Amino acid sequence: MTSSSASTASVIPAPLPIAALLALAMTGFICIVTETLPAGLLPYMSEGLGITPALAGQTVTAYALGSVLAAIPLTIATQQWRRRNVLLLTIAGFLLFNSVTALSTDYGLTLVARFFAGAAAGLAWSLLAGYARRMVQPEQQGKAMAIAMVGTPIALSLGVPLGTWAGGILGWRTAFAAMSALTVVLIIWVLAKVPDFPGQTGAQRVPLRKVLGTPGVRPVLATVMAWMLAHNILYTYVAPFAAHAGLGQRVDVLLLIFGAAALVGIGVTGKLVEHYLRSTVLASLATFFVISVVLTLLQGLQPVVYLCVAVWGLTFGGAATLLQTALADSAGDGADVALSLNVVAWNSVIAGGGVVGGVLLNHWGAQTFPPVMALLLALGFFIAWSARNHGFAAGARASASH
Q: Which whole number is the average pLDDT over 238-257?
């Protein structure tokens, strides 16, 4: 090969391993649908298990608790394992614990199964972004992560409503059994299409304390918490907010608009993340802030609410890709541990959104959501803006990545 042809070859990127990346996206899809299915099936689950709807709702809490408690220790414990074995372990966890949920007639056993399904999800979320990055060249990592993360908005916009609909017609146990069937397909898919990579050696492993002390990691995690707390206050209580706006019978339409816009957002992010990561994060936060201010002032105008929900979905769609890319770039060899911290932060603010939103709703009403969200988003914007050198560095991310 001549020097010129070698030079040409070096600048032509290899094609993205789409089938392998979509297997990771399917893993994320199963994580999200498994987590949120009970929310749409609460009446059926409470009747089937002979419990109150409030107790049935704790199946969501148990799942989130499993993710929060297990993500960091499981990630550290499996750092030296080959990556595909860890991925298959998480998928097998969904197969086992969704099957137990589908078959269980005992509430206690169901809670235990949900907790361990959440633990499997915690390990999966800490693994997926780093796995996608290892499959491709550095300059393709943002696009690869955008594809690997596409399962989340698809699950939120299509998977959960379809699961709820199917569960209502065929029974809630059938919905969980269907998730088990999907995991069997996914195991075959992973074995056929997903490449394997070695785990980290003892010399490569970065201790948790050192990861937390790495420049950029804490600002990104703080931005995650401010941004996602604002998001979850509204997302968790979108039904009462819609009712306040006179759209109580249109919650399904609002969520469909949100999900469709989120899919567009993740596509746009895939185009921008490599060269404009910082700008896209700041633009997303600023736009969500503006939407919150508009909803504070004009939440009684239904066309405005529809438009704001669409723009909200657009800003949210690429959030996981942007934040996990920034976090992994900042953490370097400690990326998997940093991403397990992200799982804890993300699930903590999901719970926090439920608590904060519930307090606001009970004491001051749904109309107070947007101004509180605006304050959180202003804080998130300030943190991201301040992290110019580490965390959300200016310029093309490939030049700053490890």
A: 84
